Structure prediction request, 501 residues.
Amino acid sequence: ETTAKMLGERRARALRDLAARTGKARTSEEALEFAAQSLSEHNLDVPFALFYLLDANSASAELIAGTASLPEALAIRATNLKERESAVWPLLDVVRTQHVVDVDDLTVRCGKFSCEPYPEPPKTALLLPITPPGSAHPIGIMVAGVSARLPLNDLYRSFYDLTVAAVTAAVANARAYEEERRRAEALAEIDRAKTEFFSNVSHEFRTPLTLMLGPLEDALAEREHPLPQAQRERIDTAQRNALRLLKLVNALLDFARIEGGRVQAHYQPTDLAGLTVDLANTFRSAMQRAGLTLTLDCPSLPEPLYIDREMWAKIVLNLLSNAFKHTFQGGITIRLTWLDGAAQLTVEDSGVGIPTDEIPQLFRRFHRVKGAQSRTHEGTGIGLSLVQELVHSHSGLIRVESVLGKGSPCSARAAASSLPLRRAVRTCPQTKSALRMATSPVAGLRRHTSRRPCIGCLPSPVPARGSRTFLKPMHPRRLPRRPVRDRAFFGLTITPICGTT
Prediction:
């Protein structure tokens, strides 16, 4: 097999195999090890090969990998290039010249040795620099033996040039992957530190807030010795702002729990219509003061649904709060229907909408739509982001459809289940405990729905319009695998309405 055609085909196969093997490497060391494994299967052209990596200063070289047929006499494990040169390989010459170096006297340098596949050992070796693009100096060196039965002509040298080029590309890709991994780990560490900071600070804020709200509520509820009107208004203002701050603290704690993996959905059979009506009614008084209508069309469903009640409450309340803040005329409609064995919740408003270029950023944490008309300029931009996290915890999806100046519907779909009650995760607090969360979002809006509307801030009346979007329900993460007829799942798709909370 020494004809030019046969040699060309054989070497082409070797290069293809080398590229396929090394393409899977994720570190520089892996790339060189895979290269050695590949070249071990092509020892007719590559009797032996060694791969060295240099340190950052090119002061020392370490042997990373070698082919299976590598003679022990040639395997110099490590060498300090600054103090002494290897008796076998002139690695320092490659570093200095950055060119291929020929070693023609192997038998003189290391004595007699044997090397497959032929009885006679190679007499010549090539030292080729591994220099990735953008690097001013070699980062490694490939030492390759030349077959004793083949002439070292231009075709043979070209084959080795292609070989070291493939190895260099694999090392460069692996280094890029390593750099990206280190960057991701650093960002993850920063994110963990941020989450821990939020959690710790939120806990530190929550305790004094709770202790402060108690006396304020007692003072406002005093009947025997009522406060004068001026003091009542001041205490009422303090209570509203304390509740708003408590809402923010609770949201930050929710994020910390979600990112820390400490939140689990507790599924239980739920009358979704009754729960949704109870949650929506907490907004009725605030909407009446604002001159808006609240329409509820939530008939009883054929069967209970397995959901996490507290998460459902947070989703509904955040979406209603968002709709209320950005709706000045008209009203909000909440509709619950039974479609193809699934409950479809739709929240429609006649709000101001959001610009198209803001839609991709809508669920980004702390993002707020610039210039959006709102009942209040307060807010942190975490309401919809929290909704997204809660939806994802149910293996749900979120999609935004909105036109500036037009309200858009919010659609959520939950599929029914025949999961036995004994399979449900442990029982959550009852619905009334979830309803307590409604205090914060509504109370914080009272002062913006009162006596002195901002003249000139109200937009022109716009009818509520929008298209519905339904997605197929998805299987949750924590429920057991069972046949379709006996499986609980909760697919959720949220199309948010008009702005950010």
